[in-house]
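For the sake of clarity, the format in which proteins appear in this thesis is described at this point. Each number in the token line that follows is a code from a learned vocabulary of backbone shapes. One such record is shown here in full, so that the layout can be seen directly:
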Amino acid sequence: MADKIDDLESRSRRCNLRVVGVPERREGADPVAFMSGFFTEVLGDSLAASPMKLDRAHRLGPHPTPGSAAKSGPRVMIVKFHNFWDKEAILRRPAREQLHFRGKKIHIFPDFTSVVAKKRAGFVDVKRILHEKKIRFSLRFPAILHVDHNGENLRFASPAEAKAWLGRVV
């Protein structure tokens, strides 16, 4: 039952992105309109030639008290896109590309459930080694590591499997 619930929650987040680093209160009274223009400003004309159609946009967590926002940083923005492919276009931009919004560094991530995020976080060490060894890989939903090595296409459902394979190959 827990797996079904997590699957349903993951599906409901399919068109969502998490945007980290947007300064507090910049969105004003209409966060949807603000975030639509935000993507055009941050990504330029290449990905967001016209304002993207968004269903919802809001911040996570309670409003910060005066002084606490400076300590913890701005709250995360959750943005729900009307079109799945608009969201995908943003995620497919070069991963190492630095994004800035009016002088502030911005990060954009998929909106995963905590269960999926923990599964994916388990692969951090393996991904670091694969990067160092220049071995091509991708981490597919929910947490399946695909590795292309010497003409072989390998799939690993757990970090332990991937580490065992790396121990034999590297």
The longest strand covers residues 104-110.
